[in-house]
Amino acid sequence: MEIIQLARAAKAAGIRLAAIPSKQKDLALAQIRDALRDASSRIEAANRDDIKKAQADGLAKPLLKRLTFDAAKVVEVCQGIQDLIHLPDPVGKTLYAMELDDGLELYKVSCPIGVIGVVFESRPDALVQISTLCLKSGNAVLLKGGSEAQKTNQVLAEVIAQASYRAGIPEGWIQLLQTREDVGQILQMDRFIDLIIPRGSNQFVRFIMDHTRIPVMGHAEGICHVYVHQAADPEKAIRIIVDSKCQYVAVCNAAEKLLVDQAVASSLLPRIKAELDSKGVEIRGCQKTCQIIGCRPATDQDWSAEYLDYIIAVKVVDGIEQAIDHINTFGSHHTDAIVTEDQAAAARFLQMVDSADVFWNCSTRFSDGYRYGLGAEVGISTGKIHARGPVGLEGLVIYKWKLIGKGHTVAPYCGPDPRPFRHRALDKDCPI
């Protein structure tokens, strides 16, 4: 089937999906959960083929880890679907209600975006998360995963589609694209596709943004910082740094930069280095850092680099103002954390760091839709649009205005003696 036919089918399915009741969507999700469990052996076999090919192609170990979809991963994604079922439906919520005049009532009501195109990285579990989030929020979806996960993604998409159709979800709501050329084609289909969410390299995301008229939501890089303030608890700081950097290095919310106040650098950096050395982390430091612990000198490029590996750039700063300025200059507006026991300093950091996620005394790795209770995520948005940070169900709906009247016309409200509007707030949900 040609790509334009897939997009048309998704558009038609999305219109019908927007009106599917919550109970039916949850039933479909339950059937998808059960179908994935039943197909576990088939999914694992496809994934083994993908991993074998990726190893032969020399895919880096951190990326191989992201590619893996074994029995434990099946259990994990099924639990994620179960959690999603228990979340409230984001569609049909009354966000605003106003009586304009007697019998003339205005409602602002949440509704699906429509058709969403998602281009994502090698993690096949992202396909399950994205598609089920789109289903729960009433959106059709076009998916393009990494070529290294092609067989796994094909099986997953087929299982999800067939299970959802058995539950009465409109056919065509989920479509799997096969090639990068397919992505190039959908970028021109603003008649059918309402939103593009790219998840990949900086260069790829920029390419998407530069070559489409369709709105784009996402982030190019995850250049996340941990800043150790002079009032930090040393034990707490070390624990947070190690977790932020090492818990899982090949993800966008792993810390890539460490800033340490001059006042505590001499006492704390040797301890930090010992812990990071034990984890196999390479430190690239500023001049002051190198003088204190002896490490590879950082270059200008290191402050804006996303490593996704066991590497971290460390800079000694003269205080919180320099730390905030550095983060706002070199960061990617993703996730940045301060470690301090000084609440005033923490408040200033959280107010002035211009990022989607700002943390106090906790790991950057908490920046995640599942951990936020959003029912996983379709991606991270670092732009300043309707959704920012981890994008879960609430980020996949927009709204429409519903005006309910009883034969009202505008004419009486115009002219030399116009009828006044009442504009009285209503405390009730939209009746339809």
Report the radius of gyration as a whole number of Å: 25 Å
At CATH level 2, the architecture of the largest domain is: 3-Layer(aba) Sandwich
Q: Main sheet?
A: 7 strands, parallel
Give the strand order of the largest sheet, numbering strands 1, 2, ... along the chain. 10-9-11-8-7-12-13
CATH fold node name of the largest domain: Aldehyde Dehydrogenase, Chain A, domain 1
Number of helices: 14
Helix content bin = 40-55%
| Tally of strands | 17
- Beta strand %: 15-25%
What overall geometry do the principal axes of the alpha carbons give? globular
The first-to-last residue Cα distance is 38 Å
Report mean pLDDT, rounded to a whole number. Answer: 94
**Multimer state:** single chain
Characterize this entry briefly.
This protein has 432 residues and is of the alpha/beta class. The chain has 14 helices and 17 strands.
Overall description:
With 432 residues, the protein is α/β, with parallel strands linked by helices. It has 2 domains: 210 residues, Aldehyde Dehydrogenase, Chain A, domain 1 (3-Layer(aba) Sandwich); 143 residues, Aldehyde Dehydrogenase, Chain A, domain 2, CATH 3.40.309.10. The protein contains 14 helices and 17 strands. A 7-stranded parallel β-sheet has the order 10-9-11-8-7-12-13, sandwiched between helices. A 4-stranded antiparallel β-sheet has the order 16-2-1-17, with no helix packed on it. Helix 5 runs parallel beside helix 6. It starts with a helix and ends in a 7-residue tail after the last strand. The mean pLDDT is 94.
